[in-house]
Specification:
Elements: H1 9-20, H2 45-61, H3 64-73, E1 83-84, H4 85-91, E2 99-107, E3 119-125, H5 127-135, E4 139-141, H6 143-149, E5 156-159
Parallel strand pairs: 1-2, 2-3, 2-5, 3-4
């Protein structure tokens, strides 16, 4: 049986082993291997009520659609990317009788001129997007309204916004200037004197 030793060489050696054998205090249940969110970080009361509703639906209906909605309600803002009206119209072509569902924001797009009458459920609509959808004869629904109309997700089209269209993502990847790199450089300005010389133009040595 190991005991904490004295000041002799064997005693110091036993002392080191004794410290090595000491554990760390874990909360009952051991180490947490699950890192996914189990609740939203936001303090938005309406979001919390929506989560409460979909927790109930997941428990009572066993519906995969409801489980996906609940999971996406927990996500961070970056992972709840917005979807423009033009993308929405494109995805819903030929599916006008169904309800589009997006856990995120629907934004306006001036490049689309004609909008069909479509029913859309989203966490949020920008003012102009809502006005244009309703003017075209469509409907802007909330998730509690969707739960009444389609408790199992029947006749719905589940959509997601483009997560990697953020400005920050354009700078990710191999360093700017490296062969075959398409990463956007962090520059003060886009003028002639800012990262426009060797490697950027044929007239200045070479062009990548």
């Amino acid at each position: 049986k190991l005991r904490r030793g004295g000041t002799t060489i064997p005693g110091l050696y036993n002392d080191q082993i004794w410290w090595c054998l000491q554990g760390i205090d874990l909360i009952a249940g051991g180490k947490s291997k699950k890192t996914k969110r189990t609740a939203p970080k936001s303090d938005d009361v309406y979001l919390k009520l929506t989560v409460k509703l979909y927790r109930f639906l997941v428990r009572r209906t066993q519906s995969k659609f409801n489980a996906v909605i609940l999971k996406r309600l927990f996500m961070s803002k970056v992972n709840k990317a917005p979807l423009s009206l033009s993308r929405l119209v494109e995805f819903m072509t030929g599916k006008e009788d169904k309800i589009a569902v997006l856990v995120g924001t629907i934004t306006d797009d001036l490049r689309v001129h004609e909008i069909p009458a479509i029913k859309v459920t989203a966490l949020r609509f920008t003012e102009r997007a809502r006005a244009r959808i309703e003017k075209a004869g469509g409907e802007c629904l909330t998730f509690d309204q969707l739960a009444l109309r389609a408790p199992l997700g029947q006749n719905t089209v589940l959509l997601r916004g483009p997560k990697n269209s953020r400005e920050a993502v354009k700078h990710f990847g191999p360093a700017p200037g490296v062969p075959h790199s398409h990463s956007k450089p962090y520059v003060r300005s886009k003028g002639r004197k800012f990262e426009k010389a060797r490697g950027k133009r044929k007239s200045r040595g070479f062009k990548v």
